[in-house]
């Protein structure tokens, strides 16, 4: 049986994947932003081994999440499921990066840098990366600022950037299967009520990757719902652009992605 950590698992895809993995007798750790949400998540997934607490809009708290996880021991699989879509600019106090972009890109970078390397590391992407600006400039909105910030295009950009980050990590982490997943547009707090895809189709891919029920020699691969390998924008394979994303994350966090 596998030891699995799923960030952002108080509701939606993360919670449902956790429930199914617990039912399949895996040791599953949840993650919540605060104590209140942690208690609610534990109640919704009573078989979980525990709930780690950290606000992933903070460098210090994200680092602390990695410390909590490492104290438990090495994980077989980590799903970096936490994400944000709609909302205001909301500058994070320790970096000045908009909260959405921090949660979607910088928090996964910090965890990739600091977690004891798992066998399988899953980044959450989106088909909306196809609508992103591909120039990889000012990815943290330092030049454009709050006045030019629009949440939907910023989200699309962040999902392109996290895919580039996943590919950069895949090139570095030998012996770890690093994947990116489009879980589908489903009815969740993030996806909204008008979503048209089925939650179970996205969860099916989560469960497959968590359990390792695929060719684990695959790394730097993008999955769609229903366990299918997808075809991302070719620009996500551009190593020079990947390294620009890594450098931007390094400059903000002071952390270097291990070779």
Automatic annotation (TrEMBL):
The lineage of its organism: Eukaryota, Fungi, Dikarya, Ascomycota, Pezizomycotina. InterPro entries: NAD(P)-bd_dom_sf, SDR_fam. Belongs to the short-chain dehydrogenases/reductases (SDR) family. Signal peptide: none annotated. It comes from Aspergillus candidus. Keywords: NADP, Oxidoreductase. Pfam families: adh_short (PF00106). SUPFAM superfamilies: NAD(P)-binding Rossmann-fold domains. This is Putative short chain dehydrogenase/ reductase. One of its GO terms (molecular function) is oxidoreductase activity.
